[in-house]
Specification:
Strand 31 and strand 32 form a beta hairpin. The longest helix is centred in the N-terminal third of the chain and has 13 residues. This protein has three helices and 48 strands. The chain has a 21-stranded parallel beta sheet that branches. It is mainly beta. This is Right handed beta helix domain-containing protein.
Length: about 600
């Protein structure tokens, strides 16, 4: 079996893909036919990439098919869109129609409350808290935010750690904030959304008030590499991440050189307020221009998160502008259905290297439909869009009991749990029958209703909080240090996006049992009509990587030898000035490509 790789001229083959026809690669779903590539050219390309020769996959086709069909059964949203709702439909990689729907607030007959900027730059937090309290009592409504600048100088008082603005246990709330600027001045999240339904926030330009990233230059002083910042290190911040940057262009070179100083690592020695030394600086070159993060996974601008008893549903973020934050831009960690991000932008404030010090959009879990369209992302300090799903480690305790780790507090009685062995092969599913009271640990023992055996289980995925449908459409992604998209969920469309000047993979479909414990498989995913300029790939791996790639790993940095992805269709994409193979696909059953143009006509 071989893997398809789109080179600068045509398809190449690499090992560990189930081919589009024949043997284990025989597709069980409706995939458009693809013309075969020249075997002679393909084998030459394999040799040039120094890739090991094909091996025989050891996974039962039936096991993968059962898992894939379970996920593909949910390609249609259970919600029927009303006239005002957001929706998107497409023909999936399986040749069947898929759709996603996110509902908007129902505010007819509900009140409109207006707020204005407090005088003399006063604290806006209590103003918003009082207005939202009124809307909560009224069962929802519109919060009309007058144009101007709002300084949020304190956290909300209901749950201070949950943000400056907290939308909690509310329904049908529409926060309209066109022509406003929100400055968040405390080290808490900007906007927290908890256990709420049909919430829309639109129009606001948002940023942290503090300076949380900067630039500098590496200098060899007395034989030791030092960092010299362009501006003094802001009070109350630390040096956490240093990476080479292209001076004056706000772009990033493809390099593995970097220094990550996490909280467990000693801070660099301060020579003065701009100059620092550390052994971690040794890999840099004298005179190298760098971007520097002053936080290690700081706060989020918008954080959509369930409590451990409620859920969020149908959250719409429309026309937001995120200029800088010390953590991620928009994060969702919810069991509920429905998340839309549209007409928004994430781009660095003037004079700052980063817009978000880490991911731009990051979905940990979301059990329903995800729409990301008509947005612009730039200058993120890691991946621009990351759609994850959670994998839990499993310790089997008996016939009907097991302990699960990794956000296991989100799991509830009645949840459907799919079990997998140490090779990531599907074993079967059970339903949670009992769970202890929610505590402060993410390692929890559950009782399961009798059913399919799971004695060999090493991993689990919870269907109740695995994203089910997604559409990433008509976005612009450019000039960031990470990937354009890291997508690890099924039943999706990636279409008509423009991706430019990224040093790493533009679109990476990943399942990682070890080490990352994330990914449900690129199952029924279509990538079509995208334009990728000056695309690169991953560095430091022993296998070929590409501008668009699909892979799975059950051990760190090793390609899985069995099937985890597919059906997968990559069609009609254009690659301009590629710096790496255009398409690399591993661990995939039912792969097709057609009509892609890689570096030429």
């Amino acid at each position: 079996m071989k893997v398809a790789v789109k080179s600068k001229s045509m398809i190449m083959l690499l090992p560990l893909l189930a081919a589009c026809s024949g043997g284990d690669g025989q597709s069980t779903t409706a995939i458009p036919p693809v013309a075969a590539a020249s075997a002679a050219e393909l084998d030459t390309a394999v040799s040039a990439q120094s890739v090991a020769q094909p091996t025989t996959a050891n996974q039962s086709v039936t096991d993968f098919d059962v898992w894939a069909q379970r996920l593909m059964s949910d390609r249609i949203s259970p919600i029927v869109a009303a006239a005002q709702d957001l929706s998107h439909s497409w023909v999936g990689a399986d040749g069947k129609v898929a759709n996603a729907v996110v509902r908007v607030p129902r505010t007819a007959g509900k009140p409109t409350i207006s707020v204005s900027p407090p005088a003399a730059g006063g604290d806006a937090t209590p103003v918003f808290q009082a207005a939202l309290s009124q809307l909560k009592k009224a069962g929802g409504g519109i919060l009309k935010v007058a144009p101007g600048e709002y300084h949020f100088q304190s956290a909300n008082t209901a749950q201070p750690t949950s943000g400056h603005i907290l939308v909690q246990n509310m329904s049908d709330v529409d926060i309209q904030a066109a022509d406003t600027v929100f400055l968040f001045e405390q080290r808490v999240d900007g906007i927290g959304i908890r256990d709420s339904r049909r919430v829309r926030i639109s129009g606001a330009q948002m940023r942290d008030a503090g300076v949380l990233s900067g630039t500098g230059r590496m200098r060899s002083i007395n034989g030791a590499m030092t960092l010299v910042l362009d501006e003094p290190l802001p009070a109350g911040t630390t040096i956490n991440w240093i990476r080479p940057m292209n001076e004056d262009s706000h772009t990033w070179p493809q390099t593995q050189t970097r220094a990550i100083i996490d909280p467990a690592t000693a801070q660099p020695v301060r020579i003065n307020d701009r100059t620092f030394s550390s052994p971690t600086f040794k890999p840099f070159k004298d005179g190298q221009y760098v971007g520097v993060k002053f936080t290690y996974y700081g706060t989020r601008m918008v954080y959509v998160r369930d409590s451990f008893t409620g859920t969020n549903e149908d959250i719409v973020l429309d026309g937001l502008r995120i200029g800088s934050t010390g953590g991620m831009g928009i994060v969702a960690k919810t069991r509920g259905r429905g998340l839309a991000i549209q007409n928004s932008s994430i781009a660095a404030d003037p004079g700052r290297p980063y817009s978000t010090n880490y991911d731009g959009v990051h979905v940990v879990a979301s059990a329903g439909d995800i729409l990301i369209r008509n947005n612009a992302f730039a200058h993120t300090g890691d991946d621009q869009i990351n759609l994850r799903s959670i994998i839990h480690r499993v310790t089997v305790l008996g016939t009907d009991r097991a302990t699960l780790t990794n956000d296991a507090r989100l799991i509830r009685v009645g949840d459907e749990v799919a079990f997998f062995n140490k090779e990531g092969e599907y074993l079967g599913r059970r339903f949670v029958a009992s769970a202890p009271p929610i505590g402060h640990t993410d390692t929890i023992t559950f009782g399961f209703k009798p059913g399919e055996p799971f004695t060999e289980a090493a991993f689990a995925r919870v269907l109740t909080m695995t994203p089910r449908r997604f559409a990433i459409v008509s976005n612009r992604l450019e000039d960031s240090i990470g990937r354009g998209m890291l997508v690890q969920i099924p039943n999706g469309l990636i279409q008509n996006n423009t991706i430019r000047r990224l040093p790493r993979t533009a679109i990476r479909l990943l399942t990682s049992f070890d080490p990352w414990l994330e990914g449900a498989g690129a199952i029924n995913v279509r990538i079509t009509g995208n334009s990728i300029e000056s695309g690169g790939a991953e560095l430091g791996f022993s296998y070929a990587t590409g501008i668009i790639m699909a892979q799975a790993e059950v051990a760190s940095a090793r390609i899985a030898g069995n099937m985890h992805n597919g059906p997968l269709l990559i069609d009609g994409n254009r690659f301009e000035a590629p710096r790496a193979p255009c398409v690399v696909v591993y661990s995939t059953k039912g792969f097709a490509e057609q009509g892609n143009v890689c570096g030429g006509s």
